[in-house]
Give the backbone structure.
Amino acid sequence: MKIDNVGQMIFGQSDVFDLIMSGRELNDRMLVDRTVDLTLIADIVDDLPEFAQYSEQVQTPAEFDAEYQRCWLMPEKYQTLDIAEYILGLCNSPEELQRCGEELLLFQERNLFTLLCYLTYLVDLMRENNIIWGVGRGSSVASYVLYKLGIHKINSLYYDLDPKEFLR
C-alpha cells in the first residue's frame, strides 16, 4: 500500500489479496492502483465492490479537502447553516462574542466553515442518540468555538487558552 500526497491509501494487487486472506471486507471507497487485475479478484470474491481507480492527478491538500467536503453526508439543514450566525447566537456576553468572532475569522481563513457545520451536525446527532463523547483532549480545547458547539467541555475563555494553539 502506498499513500499519496494528500494521505489517501492506494491499494495494490498484493494489498487487496492480503485483505481478502485476512478476512477483511472490501468496499467501494477503497482506491486501487491501476495495475490491479480486478478479474483475478472477482474469481475469489463474491459481490466484488466497484473499486475507485486511483489516478495520479496532482492535487494540493487544500484542493483535496475542498473536493471531499462537498460530498460529506449531512442533512441539508446543516449544509446551508450560517455557521457564523449560529455560533455567535450561542454567545451570552460581549467577551464571548469577541472571542468567537476572532476564532471564526481564523476558521474562515482556513476554509473550515464546512467542517464547523459538520461538527454541529455530529454533536446534534450524538445528543439525539444519547451517545457519550469525551470531554476534550489536545489542542482542540483551546478553541472556544468548539466549546460552544459542544465538541469538548473545556471553557478556554475561563482558562485563558490561546486559540492559535488549536489552529496553528
Remarks:
- DSSP finds eight helices and four strands in the chain.
- The helical segments are 13-21, 38-44, 61-69, 76-79, 83-89, 94-109, 113-128, 144-149.
- Residues 2-60 form one domain.
